[in-house]
Amino acid sequence: MALARTLAPTTLEAFFSSYVERQPLHIARNQPGYFDDAYAIGDVEDSLIVGAREPEYFCLVRTGQPELPVEEFTYERPGVRARLTGKASARWLDARRIVAYYAEGYTLIIKDAALFCARLQRFSNRLQRDLAAYVQPNVYLTPPQAQGFDVHHDTHDTLTAQIQGRKTWRIYEPLVELPLESQPFAFKERPQDLKLVAQVDLNPGDTLYIPRGFPHEARTSDDLSLHCTFALAPIRIYDVLEILVRIAGDTDVSLRESLTPRLLGERALSERLGALYRDRLEPALATDRVAIAVEIALDELFRISRPNTSNAFAQTLLTREIDTDTPIRLDDTVPFHIRGRNGIVEIAAAGKVVVLPGTCAPALAALQAGPTTAGAMDPGLSPADRYALVKRLVVEGLVIIG
What we know:
Elements (H helix, E strand, L loop, with lengths): L1 H6 L4 H8 L5 E3 L13 H10 L7 E4 L12 E4 L4 H4 L4 E4 L1 H9 L3 E4 L7 H14 L1 E10 L14 E8 L2 E6 L23 E7 L4 E4 L5 E5 L4 E10 L2 H15 L9 H4 L4 H13 L5 H17 L8 H7 L8 E4 L5 E6 L2 E6 L2 E6 L3 H9 L2 E2 L9 H13 L3 E3 L1
Antiparallel strand pairs: 1-10, 2-5, 3-4, 5-6, 6-12, 7-10, 7-12, 8-9, 8-11, 13-17, 13-18, 14-15, 15-16
Helix pairs in contact: 7-10
């Protein structure tokens, strides 16, 4: 599991019971190369080429200075033979200008860096499966003796993997506990007005977890620093309740009535809304409706997830020769959620829902238990049905042969 490896030797049980949304966690390893399977400094330079046409995912920041406008590190590139084709010009990243600003003390940030690095996308997908949360990796390359952002808090939890160099983090007591996206950090607060909770030196291979709402800042030492911060967006109680109210409004016309100017001015409005809650909204918390709300939240989560390709073209060709002994396993880089309803099985995966007959449930359970073979997956299915199911799951990018 990617999460277990990222947190080791801290156990998952300890992480969720003692740290998640409660307190920061620093896991010291000082083990260069620990996160090489996820990212390396060469990927930063590759991203400047692969993402050259998408400058909105790149930014340059330095503490005490406003973020550089995109025009400062891009150039206008005309279309090929634009005079004849009429193709409009576009702004492209200028890698040399980015490097020049980096040399002046600016931190390069690559937002949603997995867009430009398939290896990082696979690692993020594994984390998403383990956490049941959307995971967005953001990469920070900071020069020596420099700081990117001023002190701030995030409205999402973060897991930071230190890849190269050392960075000193100062973490402060929250001003807002578990803030929503609408509750950003109050920049009028100065670090000296905040209560220091921890100061940690992040070395290569270290992990740092910071719950949302904890103000923090980080500065490099005499060497550059490269780290990847995984922004975590789990399903919150707030999200499920919001969906429940939405469902109630869809099914109960009384909740869709407008509040007239007269009603808005009435002191008794709170009593009226209280009665509506007791009579209309409280039934919305029935078990069956909560289950529906959770399923909607999961669907929304997986709709924004990204697919991954694990040797997809060769895998598709292997489906031509499936037999009883063909080894198969779930692709652990693909986030998905399996549910059964009304005689069918649905697999919610990145951007889609795969619908299968309910008779496939035992086979899917066997796959979730670990690697198996096409013959042993579910002896209750006919060979033709087993092979057809394996082929479908391979084509959908959910199962790997071999």
